[in-house]
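Supplementary notes for students who missed Thursday's class. We covered one full example, reproduced here. Read the sequence, then the structure, then the short commentary at the end.
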Amino acid sequence: MTVRLIASDIDGTLLRDDGTMSDRTVAALAAAEDAGIVVVLCTGRPPRWMHPIAETTGHRGLAICANGAIVYDLHTETVVEHFPIDVEVGRRLAVALKTALPDAQMAVERVDGMWREPSYVPIAPTGHTEAAFEDLLTEPMVKLIAKHPGMTSAELHAAAHDAVAELADLAETTYSSGSIIEISAAGVTKAFGLEHLATERGIDAADVVAFGDMPNDIPMLSWAGRGVAVGNAHPDVVAIADDVCASNEDDGVAQVIEELLATRSR
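Structure (token representation):
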């Protein structure tokens, strides 16, 4: 294949388990961009969590944040576009989920931060505002987030699917690491954000290589011409991938990029 765009998840894929990015991976991403390949980082992270990544990569590449809902420029650390959930749709989704699962703890991500119920304990200590449940639902959101004290992400994902089944055409529900599920507007996935960005640049799916490790990466790996699961990936990701590379601890993404660039130069 002719590789014109490389897309990769961040956590568990580019980053090692300790949250750092190896020098080898940084060098591989830089070499790809220097070779004229578009580099896109596709993540569930919000923009406010992207500064360390931008610094580590030398402000290279673009990013699809919030599972496809935000296009973010790492060069300038600015939001280029976003695709939120409509206020009324967000309210219907949140109320349906809360009615079915009263113990669910909920939060919303907007472009400028997170708003959360008092019971929702966030991962990061800053960047969020405590608010009553009803007050979460007064503005468009890029993600509706839920966790449940008695459920894993996979269990909550299954329960939420049943809870909002009648609203399935209004939203996309997924999960990655941790104990949360993430809900985006209908059709908004990492594949949606990546396809939108690629189309603007005249790049076809056939010319894209994508890397990932968790269920929220499945749409992206399925859409790309070559979807690669890292060795530590969730079984569902491995099952749909075209290839499996070495793990995040062993610079799997960097290894594949190096091979692609070597083949290109022959």
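Commentary. The two ends are 14 Å apart (CA to CA). The first helix runs from residue 23 to 34. If anything here is unclear, bring it to office hours.
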